[in-house]
Amino acid sequence: MNSINASNMKKTTLGPSGIECSAIGLGTWAMGGWMWGGGDNAAAVLAIQASLDAGVNLIDTAPAYGLGRSESIVGTALKGRRHEAVIATKCGLVWHTQQGTHFFEEDGHPVYRYLGRDSIIHEAEESLKRLQTDYIDLYITHWQDATTPVAETMDALLELKKQGKIRAIGVSNVSPETLAEYLRYGPVDAAQERYSLIDREIEQTLVPLCTENNVAVLGYSSLALGLLAGPIDPERKFTGDDQRATNPRFSAQNRAKLKAFFEELEPLRTQLECSFGQLMIAWTLARGSVSVALCGARASKQAIENAGAGSVRLHDAALELIDAAAGRHLGSLA
Fold first, then answer.
1. Between helices 150-162 and 176-185, what is the axis angle to 10°?
2. Count of the separate structural domains present in the chain
3. Which domain holds residue 309?
4. Which of 46, 260, 273, 313 is found 20 to 30 A from 109 (Cα to Cα)?
């Protein structure tokens, strides 16, 4: 497996903000436990600290990840090390009000998509408390709210920025049309969207607009919920509320396709002395569509392995080989 050298980590800048961060970010959704079959707070804290040690300084979280649990874990992990981290968190999925549009139920709480001004101001204060900090580096609208004008949402974000409570503004799960509307009212530093070897739609839809307007693209689910981390044991069971238990991508038939895909890439993996997960993360960065590859982890071993991808360099022939193998084996997974 590729060895870890924090100094080898690729760096990038979050749009007009000028904030520099690692090109690999740590995603903390699974740390919140919700939809991942529970979690271990102590292990999560160690995973965050291991990420920092390995050169990954962008930590991505959200209130909805365990109804504040993930943010609280991040706050605990960064005690005494806040200055080392770039914290990205989110707003717009709320359970303190029933305004907006009902989205889902989480641990008995109805959660709404709502980006009204007063709600955003309230959410920011709650996040600051949980994160144990007085500023958020990148504040992202988690899901878009059709009931609130973008002008009102952006006004609240710009006010928070003026107050120094946030340093940069981001959007997530957004159409090009809605992003263009945000840009009418002020600078957007980052757009966070799903992107991986088997989720490439934004290359044609959102990425061109982001490139034109200097908006950094943060790709989440770089390993497709773990699907691309390496061959999955045919006998492995996903239990509890783990979303993978009912996700058709994790079917026995698809696991067989993945096995064939990874077998074809084994010589390349061996040559590069990396894991399959590192190979997939390196592909994500090398393709040039995203500035940051966000990778989830719940344990130090996972976090350290993900960080090691920052030292993997792929030449054009390697990219062509990976794309060709994906075309042969994974086309029907998307």
1. 50
2. 1
3. 6-328
4. 46
- Position 230 pLDDT exceeds 90: no
How confident is residue 140, by pLDDT bands cut at 50, 70 and 90? very high
Q: Residue 247 falls within a domain, yes or no?
A: yes
Each residue's pLDDT tens digit, 280-305: 999 999 999 999 999 999 999 999 99
How far apart (Å, rounded) are the C-alpha atoms in residues 90 and 112?
A: 14
**How do the residues of the chain divide into helix, strand and coil, expressed in percent and rounded to 5?**
45, 20, 35
Q: Is residue 19 part of a domain?
A: yes
> In this structure, what CATH number is given to the domain that contains residue 128?
3.20.20.100
DSSP β-bridge partners for residue 105: 110
Closest CA to 56 of 11, 114, 122, 115: 11
pLDDT over 80 at 95, yes or no: yes
Q: Is 35 a member of any domain?
A: yes
In a domain, 41, yes or no: yes
| Mean per-residue pLDDT over the chain, rounded | 93
Report residue 325 as tokens: 């193998």
Enclosing H/E stretch for 330? none
pLDDT confidence of residue 205? 96
Quote the tokens at residue 112: 């709404």
